[in-house]
Design brief:
134 residues, alpha/beta, 4-stranded parallel beta sheet
């Protein structure tokens, strides 16, 4: 494990060392402020943010898994997957999920684990803040 961490660290150091400052401001978007997750909307939003000198770094979303059973958790899991796709689409490297309530951890954990796996495949870092983890 230390080898992969060291290799990843050296990749980051090399990439940053070969970089130059960009004239953009990193911003955290909130999911509640998005009018839509449709590709057309996200494409326009990304272009408008870039034109204004902003680069989305994080998309923050509030989640509530306050229903019991895996079927009840599915709509919220679907919404989070859609927001993960939106984060990736606009170029945000992180999806920050603030989980305020969890009624059934046994039902929530598989849904969040699947979300974490999807985030890894999409190159987006998933962070969870709340009473559940993956």
């Amino acid at each position: 494990m230390s080898t992969s961490t060291s290799a990843a660290g050296s990749r980051v150091e090399r990439a940053v060392a070969a970089s130059s400052p960009a004239d953009v401001e990193s911003v955290e978007l909130t999911a509640a402020a998005l009018d839509s997750t449709a590709p057309e909307y996200l494409r326009e939003l990304k272009a408008e943010l870039a034109a204004a000198g902003y680069q989305p770094a994080t998309l923050r979303v509030e989640a509530s898994l306050d229903e019991t059973g895996s079927l009840a958790a599915q709509p919220e899991a679907d919404r989070l997957r859609e927001l993960l796709r939106a984060a990736s689409f606009v170029g945000a490297g992180r999806l920050a999920v603030d989980v305020d309530r969890v009624a059934d951890e046994a039902a929530a954990e598989p849904a969040l684990a699947a979300l974490a796996e999807r985030a890894e495949r999409d190159g987006v870092t998933l962070t969870l803040d709340g009473p559940v983890s993956v």
